[in-house]
Design brief:
The chain is an alpha/beta fold. The chain is built from 21 helices and 15 strands.
Length: 596
């Protein structure tokens, strides 16, 4: 029986070692000391103890079976190899992916296995080879430890059958209670290890194996139930915050039927403003919505927020749910009804995250993507065709498309591994945004020389922002994004300082065209007289943030606690919660049959 206890204790020790290695891997970018590391171990121990119990269940069962029939030791050795490989893979993936995702390993990584080329575009072959070698080495080391310390005795006398059977039976409730996390109403969960205002320390305390297993059934196609208040209170709040009609909106355009181009600039939040000087100049030439905030933190979410004006979710991607996303409203479908020709341009794999399905089902007639380029062009960037090439394609589309038209364009070069063809700035990340800025500037200068410029509305905004140089979710600047309208269709240069979201594009744009926008329930015309409660909401991995004139508030869904608020009893968190609750209800019901 001692080998089962040894298996359990060794597993707990491995989890602790993995925490230490994880933290040390980020010592250069995260500020923590020995005391923080000890607190991480102490607070994370309850989750480690519970998770380790999962891995003694099979040895427990095999031991019980061994009293009636022979169980060969090789079965245990194979089991130890299996869990050693699983642990090595989990520890390595968790430590490696955290730099890109800023959250612990979960089942969302499985969604990228269907498009491995896209999934691996952010890293080099050398990076992958090193990680593979680490997995192999760690697997061998853990296997050796298990086989040395937890060897199954082949001598039945050593097992002392009746005494062992009694101990096994007595241990059943202990294992069940341990896995459950105690006798309290709440069960084992990630939030129980959170202890700090520093999210890195909280994340370090989370067991990556438990994080993955607990989220396994909750992939990107799963929508949790969010319920913070009564349905009546929720509906009342949403109705007040999201007027669906426009009243006396200020007119920014000199035409109600411009040709429209929307450029989603990959990751180009305001944290990169200094690396994009030409964009700052364009803000002065057109309409600058200077207080706009991203709704989400990933491309698939942000793209849908922009075109459908629908909020994002912390752990779910509506774009990956074809039956739901195809029923959402869209700028493209609305303008198609008005006679607009609609097309979309992307230099990467348009099948990634069901992007093709979403675009086609919501009104885009023609798609131009990576496979429409030569083999040589497809290899110009890890993610596909680099931006200067696709910007040339965009120019050709604008100058040859029949009016009126709507063109959507997603850039891709401002993404790891930042492989752009020019070098102007020392920081490789900022240099990629400088390159994107050059591409935009070149396009605008070319278009100004064409007759198409006079009736063109060019809208620039990112799909989302990202962490940069210590600016993370606890900083109001993290999710602030540029939102700029330029072109000959714009009447005059103007700054709109009103706080808004990227989801407000559909209502604001359609109102300028004299078109109704009631179907965009969560999109507001920020120029309308009835937009009286300006605020912005953002979701990140299992969290909500909200912004108004008083500042930034954050709410953690793991702990169900407010992590930051601009003042005591701020209504911001409640507003963000109501948006999440209402949007969840709406999206869950969107494809349900209507009762007769």
């Amino acid at each position: 029986m001692w080998y089962i206890l040894k298996t359990y204790l060794l597993t707990v020790v491995l989890f602790i070692i993995a925490k230490i290695v994880f933290m040390l891997s980020y010592h250069a970018t995260q500020d923590f000391g020995i005391a923080d590391l000890l607190q991480v171990i102490a607070h994370g121990l309850s989750l480690d103890l519970s998770t380790a119990l999962y891995f003694v269940i099979l040895p427990w069962l095999l031991t019980l079976v061994s009293f009636w029939c022979r169980v060969k030791g090789i079965i245990f050795r194979c089991y130890y190899i299996f869990i050693a490989f699983a642990f090595a893979l989990a520890f390595t993936a968790d430590t490696s992916l955290y730099a890109f995702w800023n959250f612990k390993l979960d089942a969302s990584c499985l969604g990228y296995l269907s498009t491995p080329t896209e999934a691996m575009a952010s890293v080099s072959a050398g990076y992958l080879i090193v990680r593979l070698l680490i997995v192999i080495i760690v697997t061998l080391a853990i296997t050796l430890l298990y086989n040395r310390c937890c060897r199954f005795p082949q001598d039945k006398k050593a097992l002392k059958p009746w005494r062992s059977i009694v101990l096994l039976v007595v241990s059943i409730p202990l294992i069940i209670i341990g896995v459950r996390g105690g006798l309290a109403e709440s069960t084992t969960n990630i939030g129980q290890v959170y202890f700090s205002q520093n999210q890195f320390l909280n994340h370090s305390a989370v067991n990556p194996v438990f994080s993955f297993l607990s989220s396994f059934e909750k992939t990107a196609s799963y929508i949790p139930d969010y319920h913070f208040d009564s349905d009546e209170a929720c509906e009342k709040t949403i109705a007040a915050l999201f007027p669906t009609e426009s009243i006396d909106s200020e007119q920014l355009l000199n035409t109600t039927r411009p040709n429209i181009v929307v450029i989603l600039m990959e990751s180009a939040g305001e944290v990169f403003a200094s690396a994009m000087p030409r964009l700052q100049q364009l803000k002065k030439e057109g309409v600058d919505f200077s207080n706009c905030f991203a709704n989400s933190w990933r491309t698939d979410r942000g793209t849908l927020c922009t075109w459908s004006g629908f909020p994002s979710f912390p752990t779910s991607s509506i774009m990956k749910m074809p039956s739901k996303c195809r029923q959402l409203p869209s700028i493209a479908s609305t303008l198609r009804e008005e006679g607009y020709h609609t097309s979309y341009l992307y230099g990467g794999d348009i099948n990634f995250t069901n992007m093709r399905g979403y675009l086609v089902s919501t009104g885009f007639e023609r798609l131009h993507w990576m496979k429409d380029y030569t083999q040589e062009e497809q290899k110009t960037a890890k993610w596909g065709v680099r931006d200067d090439i696709t910007f040339n394609t965009l120019y050709e589309m604008i100058t040859h498309e029949k009016s009126p038209f709507l063109i959507g364009f997603s850039t891709l070069s401002t993404h790891e591994p930042w492989d752009v063809p020019t070098r102007h700035l020392d920081d490789e990340t900022e240099n990629a945004f400088y390159y994107l800025d050059e591409c935009i500037d070149t396009l605008v200068k070319r278009l100004k020389k064409t007759p198409q410029w006079q009736n063109l509305l060019l809208i620039l905004l990112p799909d989302h922002s990202m962490d940069h140089k210590g600016i993370g979710e606890y900083d109001i600047r993290r999710n602030q994004i540029p939102f700029v309208w330029i072109g000959g269709a714009v009447k005059e240069a103007k700054t709109i300082p009103t706080i808004c979201n990227q989801t407000d594009l559909p209502a604001t744009l359609l109102a300028q065209l004299g078109l109704p926008h009631q179907q965009f329930r969560y999109s507001r015309d920020v120029l309308s007289k009835n937009y009286t409660q300006p605020f912005a909401v953002h979701t990140f991995n299992n969290g909500i943030s909200a912004v108004d004139s008083t500042g930034l508030a954050l709410y953690d869904l793991n702990t169900q606690k407010t992590m930051l608020e601009p003042k005591a009893n701020s209504p911001l968190i409640h507003r963000g919660q109501m948006v999440l609750q209402a949007a969840t209800r709406d999206i869950k019901n969107i494809d349900q049959p209507v009762a007769p």
